[in-house]
Amino acid sequence: MFNAEEIQKIIQDLKRIKTKVPEQDLEKTAQNLYDLALFLVRLQIKQHLKPPKPQNAEDLPTPTDKSP
Fold first, then answer.
1. What is the per-residue pLDDT for 64?
2. What's the maximum distance between 2 C-alpha atoms anywhere in the chain?
3. Could you tell me which of 63, 59, 45, 2 has the C-alpha nearest to residue 27?
4. pLDDT < 70 stretches in the chain
5. Could you tell me which residues come within 8 angstroms of residue 43 by beta carbon, excluding any fewer than 6 positions away?
């Protein structure tokens, strides 16, 4: 489950920044980075879709007014 075009872009970026990843491991590293990025995006979307947790009035911070 990966996009070959995106993997190639990541490989080019890894080469451009002169990473110390051996040439034979570049594709696997790029694929792992792509999978990680997809996971993080999905996690972020999942967190935004959750409804906010209801808060009790006791849980809210109380304002402290220090003016005279």
1. 66
2. 70
3. 2
4. 1-2, 48, 50-68
5. none
Phi, psi of 53 (to 5 degrees): -70, 130
Region of residue 44 (phi > 0: left; psi between -120 and 50: alpha; otherwise: beta) = alpha
Name the 3-class secondary structure at 6: helix
Cα separation, 2 vs 38, in Å, equals 9
User: What tokens were used for 66?
Assistant: 């220090």
Calpha distance 59→44 (Å, rounded): 25
The single-letter code of the amino acid at 54 is: P
Per DSSP, 38 falls in state H
Q: How confident is the model at residue 23, as a pLDDT?
A: 87
